[in-house]
Predict the 3D structure of the following.
Amino acid sequence: MYREYSRRLGQLLSGIVVTAVGIVMTLQANVGLEPWSVLQQGLTLTFGITFGLASILVGTTVILIAVLCGERIGAGTFINIILCGVFMDGLLALGWLPKMTGLASGVVMLLAGLEVLALGTWMYMRSALGSGPRDALMVALARKTGRSVGLCRASVELAVFLAGWFLGGQVGIGTLISALGLGMLFNLNFALLHFDAAALHQEDIMETLRRLSRQRQESQR
């Protein structure tokens, strides 16, 4: 069982890294931010905090809403909230991903970033150690409403975009592309990978602790 959890933790961490790269790519595309980034940048401008810290604060708020909708919260959920913000701040500080200066190159960078984001989400969600905060909300709404995961995500992100725009986050053609296309991109990727996010059982913290405790007791016999 310890080997199983090591494997799943590796999936979780690698997915978080890939997700952070995808988000930073959308930032560096410089053609308008995807909806969550619009909100987070608005928070950085309003309160003078880093983009990563804004992501952590938003993630914490979102996961509280998901809990109220009945979504399971796992160890991976909290790891995602903290590490994704840390990795994004680190990538931005290192400057490894250049900022685009043209519209065509920016749109290409944006589309590539959205695809990387979708793949990173699949990577960490399949670890089943708890969804990331935004994905926990997405799955909770899909279960509550009976609608597709992509439609729920698109609806939430339109609302997030409006809040971020009000706070002064960067808006452009990339924002429109992200708001309208990201949900469809998630549906396409999940379908191609034969991955049903709403049907996947995400292990909550208490379940993880119980399984590890049983394994320890059995190994001591």
